[in-house]
Amino acid sequence: MADGGAKVDASPDGSGSGLERLIDIGLALSAERNHARLTERILLEAVDITKADGGTLYLCQGEGVDQTLKFVILRNGTLKTAMGGTTGIEIKFPPLRLYNAETKQPNHNNVATHVALTGKAINIEDAYTAEGFDFSGTKKFDQGTGYRSKSFMTIPLKNYTDQVIGVLQLINATDPDGTVIPFSKNMQRMVEALASQAAVAIDNQQLIEAQKALMDSLIAVMAGAIDAKSPYTGGHCQRVPELTKMLARKAHDATEGPFKDFKLDEGDWYELHVAAWLHDIGKVTTPEYVVDKATKLQTIYDRIHEVRMRFEVLRRDAEIKMLKAIAKGKSARVERKKFKDRCAELDEQWKFIADTNLGGEFMPKEKQDKVKEIGAQEWYRYFDRKLGLSWTEGKLLDKAPPPAEGVEKLLADLPEHGAAEYHLGELLNLSIGRGTLNDDERKKINDHIVLTIQMLKDLPFPKHLRRVPEYAGGHHEKMDGTGYPNKLRGDQMSLPAKIMAIADIFEALTAADRPYKKAKTLSESVKILSFMKKDKHVDADLFELFLTSGAYKDYADEFLRPEQIDTVDISKYLTPPAPPPTPANTPTPPPQQQAAE
Questions:
Q1: What is the DSSP letter of 364?
Q2: N or C: at which end does the chain have fewer Cβ atoms within 10 angstroms?
């Protein structure tokens, strides 16, 4: 590249195989996806082409006057030195600064930084006699090791925009007898041609890595935004991917049983990673007060305060009634007793309604009937409740506008309650049988998965990520086909989707940051998951692997609070082994004996 369009001879020694080798190297470099192997191969091929004793590959990093050349690969045959690349040995030499740290002037004293700054190749026959560059460090190194650094060839690596992205430096070219010789012009042209191919390969890989880093950042931002909507589910989008990958790793590592053939390559793991992080992306459209609904009457605020105020009104009405009766000459003792009894009754009713508002695992019909009975009590409203409303709230009253004043029920399902997006009826919400969500709100929660699938399908995922929508969109499906949104059966789902379903459920069971439930212990969560396995809601084989592999315990140790982690007897939840087959020559016992046995 330094000579522009200079002709490349067939090979350094004039034979006819060099051009073919460059072609082969170019094809190999373009196919390599591992960064360490790519950079290592570039240096080793250059060393082999020139029969150099060693070399170094630097890559540029930083911006402006803070740019440096980072040591990436270092090799020396005589000194038997191999660092960087696939060796796993860290190169501890500090990066070379392209600009002086104090004066901010370009550093042309070092040959490698000079080449990076100018973009021109430098070919030096003997470092000890070369002028214009500071080789004092090289000479000091030679004194300490007994090595003799002589010929140097330093080539810039330029990308398609002619920007220097790295430097390739070779040391001590040798002839067939092993004698150190200068790098020939033909060698230089060959290495420059290799450097051109190498720069393209490195630049392409850096662009791919940059795109991947950008995508990972966007995914993390989206997941963080979903978690940030709710202070109570702040870690869900981060914990589900961890548990998903834990269980997937156990299945991948299985050498026997139903998962012995399940294997994930590097691309598969990344695909699962993306899907797990985006599994709840549809929740960006779910209102916070639905996601966070901690009580049955909660919307943007908890409407239990309105109900409590009505109880206050009823108590005050009872007190006024008592005082009026006494003023009319009725027995003060009798009227105070009536008032005291009414206060006790209201207190008991208020505590019941307040407790009902908290939700729970199950609300029997008799309690629902009691809510209606209490709610049938009446109080008188004197002020016009059509005033002071927003335009949207006022529109809800158009069909059945309330009177300016009048009698109202203590609890009611008013026409405007049913006209809202989510039914606001007080009787309806306080009578919710399980949890705190009514049917409208539960549908909205469930719809997040529909939106997740739609949003992910609308994204132009590359071919190697084409299964992300399926993985992410299946975590609410059930093995018996009663899940949502597509009512898929277990045989219609991929294994990663089934894994994510277990991860999503178990995270929710063990989460200690939900406002509507107390954090469950490890044993309680495993027990509930076992019921879901029995009901064919989760995959039975995965459930057993979850227990036998210890994945449940690994997750608990990392993410659960100490007080949640208790002893789990997994033997209670595992399928007992099948009895050994009866030998063919063993007579079958009569039915009566079988029954006795």
A1: -
A2: C
Give the separation between CA 542 and CA 534, rounded to whole angstroms: 13
Q: How far is CA 321 from the centre of its chain?
A: 62
Mark 98-119 as b/e (b = at least 16 C-beta within 10 Å). bbeeeeeebbeebbbbbbbbee
- Residue 40 belongs to what H/E stretch? helix 35-50
User: Is the Cβ–Cβ distance between 59 and 70 less than 8 Å?
Assistant: yes
Specify the residue for token string 């020139």: 50
Rounded Cα gap, residues 72 and 41, in angstroms: 12
Would the pLDDT of 380 be above 90?
A: yes
Residue pair 268/524 in contact (Cβ under 8 Å)? The answer is no
The answer, yes or no, to whether residue 23 has pLDDT greater than 90, is no
- The SS3 call for residue 190 is helix
- Its pTM stands at 0.68
What values do phi and psi take at 460, rounded to 5? -80, 65
Confidence label for 584 from pLDDT (cuts 50, 70 and 90) = low
Q: Are the C-beta atoms of 165 and 196 separated by less than 8 Å?
A: no
List CB contacts of 259: < 8 A, sequence separation 6 or more: 251, 252, 495, 541, 545
Q: In what helix (H) or strand (E) does residue 274 lie, and over which residues does it extend?
A: helix 266-277
Give the C-alpha separation, 282 to 220, whole Å.
15
Rounded Cα distance, 158 and 2, in Å: 10
CA distance 468 to 453: 9
Which among 559, 555, 531 has a CA at the least distance from the CA of 543? 531
φ, ψ for residue 168 (rounded to 5)?
Answer: -110, 120
Residue with tokens 């009514």: 438
Cα(394)–Cα(385) distance, integer angstroms: 10
Long-range CB contacts (within 8 A, 24+) of 143-146? 145/79
Tokens of 387: 């005033």
H or E element, residue 30: helix 18-31
The string of pLDDT tens digits covering residues 163-197 is 999 999 999 999 999 899 999 998 899 888 888 88
485 φ, ψ (degrees, to nearest 5):
-95, -15
- What domains lie within the chain, and their CATH numbers? 18-208 (3.30.450.40), 230-286+442-573 (1.10.3210.10), 304-436 (no CATH)
Q: Which two tokens stand for residue 150?
A: 């002589």
Residues paired with residue 83 on neighbouring β-strands, in sequence order:
74
Q: What secondary structure letter does DSSP report for 106?
A: B
Give how far Cα 254 sits from Cα of 257, 264, 558, Å. Answer: 7, 12, 22
Find, among 301, 300, 279, 293, the residue nearest to 226 by Cα. 279
Distances (CA, A) of 221 to 237, 262, 281, 288, 473: 11, 31, 11, 18, 19
Label residues 554-576 b or e (16+ Cβ within 10 Å = b).
Answer: bbbeebbeeebeeebebeebeee
- pLDDT tens per residue across span 220-258: 888 777 777 766 565 788 899 999 999 999 999 999 999
